[in-house]
Amino acid sequence: MTTVERGPVTSEQAARESKLLAGVPTDLLVGGRWVPSSSEERFAVEDPATGLELTTVADAGVEDGAAALDAAVAAQATWGRTAPRERAEVLRRAFDAVVARTDDLALLMTLEMGKSLAESRGEVTYGAEFLRWASEQAAHVAGRYLPAPDGKQRVLVAKKPAGPCLLITPWNFPLAMATRKIAPALAAGCTVVLKPAAETPLTALLFAQVLQEAGVPDGVVNVVPCTRAGDVTGPLIADPRLRKLSFTGSTAVGKQLLKQAADGVLRTSMELGGNAPFLVFEDADLDAAVEGAMLAKLRNGGEACTSANRFYVHSAVAEDFSRRLAERVAAVKVSRGTEDGAQVGPLINEKGRSKVADLVDDAVSRGARVLTGGSRVEGPGYFYAPTVLADVALGSRLLAEEIFGPVAPVATFDTEDEAVALANDTEYGLVAYAYTGSTARALRLVERLETGMLGINTGVISNPAAPFGGVKQSGIGREGGEEGIEEYLETVYAGIADPWG
Ligand code: NAD
User: How far apart are CA 141 and CA 353, in angstroms?
Assistant: First the structure.
């Protein structure tokens, strides 16, 4: 096992953390009021860097979920008719308010999720941008009007809010996954019930309070953290008053929700798991490829759906690439996210860490060489040493499953056809990365790779102005870009008799 130095938390830092935690709402937000759960049950939220409890949060039950949907339904008509400009201004104020609370939101995220403060601040910036983007879109929703080709009718196409939405979010981006759904929903005129992940409810609760302060009316955003997710969300999905389900999380849970949604033919958006290939061709700029690999692999400690999961490198440059990547990865500072210069924090929990350890052990048992890392980090918390594996055998589990940790497996290829076949050999299709000096090859890859998103000579592609989402079992629908708001709009067509007679 590797040991990583973890400096003591100073008394100043401890006081800052206690003060922040004391000010964060920990009840449910239903109809504009902060309320305990009807059973009065609460659950603990843990710091994954220490395994210690941070605080407890009200644990919503079935009745609380129902009350939240009642509140969203009650607020729908008024919010849906609120002038688009007014909705835009509420969202713009929310953007400003989130930015103003960057320090608090970032620290809270680091405490409950583990990523470094620098990464958390980056997430606040990224997450806030969805509020600004949606505020800009809110007043630009348009339909169309045209004569039918035979001239006998007029075609009127109108857009209207889909209606009350259930939004279910994961723990890995506690703020951005919430803003990426709430912002377009509100811009479109929908009210929402948010069920954040039980691992990271605090960021969502503080964000909801910020939204209240920014002027989001009562009942428009309701938040129900809970430990029995299926019990609470099942009845809501079955309720005909719910008009939209937007889920971000694992493919396994997404499939269950799709089955439930099928009964009521409920509209769904699904942002599911990934298994991103990272291709490095022989004509790539290797310095840039190593830099991009660091970002694509270690962003969020590897706990990202967009994380590079499999590195396929041309055999002519594989040794050089792996060695340089391993040197960079070995120098990364692993620590509690609040420490100065922290780069990689702990994994979310022991289950997540055991999965990473099992996947690495499997690859090593099939002949992979550990260039750096390859083991748990001793001490409290759920740390795993950032790892680079070379000569990974095809068939190793970690080439097929989401690793969700700081592990970079490198395998080789010899031709573009082979690289494309390897990249596409997965049921997932969220994102792919490719480093190449050839523009023609890059454009061929856009056409050849089965993916919703592609990073060409870049290791980060998330952008509020771009449509985020996957193909195959990585999901249905898009978030952000021009497309994001469409997920929350219904299209109504009216055929109108020829006004000339
Ligand atoms: P998860 O599927 O376990 O949980 C996601 C959310 O669903 C949580 O709020 C959880 O409480 C809830 N949930 C779990 N079981 C449920 C059920 N039966 N009914 C209703 N809700 C239920 O995923 P996770 O571990 O929180 O997040 C990691 C996964 O999310 C990874 O697979 C990752 O790729 C994916 N992810 C995808 C995107 C994307 O945009 N495609 C973004 C971030 C994360």
Answer: 45
Q: What share of the chain is helix, strand, coil (3-state, %, to 5)?
A: 40, 20, 35
Query: What is the Cβ-side half-sphere exposure of residue 371, based on CA atoms within 13 angstroms?
Result: 23
Between CA 130 and CA 136 the distance in angstroms is 10
Q: What are the residues whose beta carbons fall under 8 Å from the beta carbon of 227, sequence distance 6 or more?
A: 43, 59, 198
Q: Distance of alpha carbon 174 from its chain centroid, rounded?
A: 8
Return the CA Rg of the chain.
23
SS3 for 67-108 is: HHHHHHHHHHHHHHHCCHHHHHHHHHHHHHHHHHCHHHHHHH
Neighbours of 32 (CB within 10 A): 15
If you ran DSSP here, which 8-state letter would residue 31 be given? Answer: T
What is 276-462's CATH superfamily? Aldehyde Dehydrogenase; Chain A, domain 2 (3.40.309.10)
User: What stretch(es) of the chain map to CATH 3.40.309.10?
Assistant: 276-462
How far is the centre of ligand 1, averaged over its atoms, from the C-alpha of 302 (Å)?
15
The pTM of the full predicted model, rounded to 2 decimals, is 0.98
Distance from the alpha carbon of residue 210 to the mean position of ligand 1, in angstroms: 24
Residue 22 CA from chain centroid, whole number: 27
Both structure tokens of 241: 């008053």
Task: Identify which of 43, 242, 248, 476 to mutate to test ligand 1's pocket (most ligand atoms within 8 A of the CB).
Answer: 248
How far apart are the CA of 415 and the centre of ligand 1, in A? 36
In this structure, is the dihedral angle defined by the CA atoms of residues 194, 199, 205 and 206, taken in order, positive or negative? Answer: negative
Ligand 1 midpoint to CA 272 (Å): 7
Q: Cα–Cα distance between 68 and 205 in angstroms, integer?
A: 14
Dihedral sign, Cα of residue 107, residue 108, residue 112, residue 115: negative
Reading the block at residue 462, the tokens are 């998330």
Measured in residues, the chain has a length of 501
The CATH fold of domain 14-271+476-490: Aldehyde Dehydrogenase; Chain A, domain 1 (3.40.605)
Q: Who lines ligand 1 at CB under 6 A?
A: 168-173, 177, 195, 197-198, 229-230, 233, 248-250, 253, 256, 271-274, 305, 402, 430, 470, 475
Atom of ligand 1 nearest to the CA of 271: 41
> Mind listing the pLDDT tens digit for each residue in 109-146?
999 999 999 999 999 999 999 999 999 999 999 999 99
Does the active-site annotation cover 427? no
Q: Where in the chain is the domain with CATH 3.40.605.10?
A: 14-271+476-490
Residues 6+ apart with CB under 8 A from 455: 292, 296, 431, 432, 433, 434, 461
- The per-residue pLDDT for range 202-252, each reduced to its tens digit, is 999 999 999 999 999 999 999 999 999 999 999 999 999 999 999 999 999
Work out the number of other CB atoms within 10 angstroms of the CB of residue 419. Answer: 25
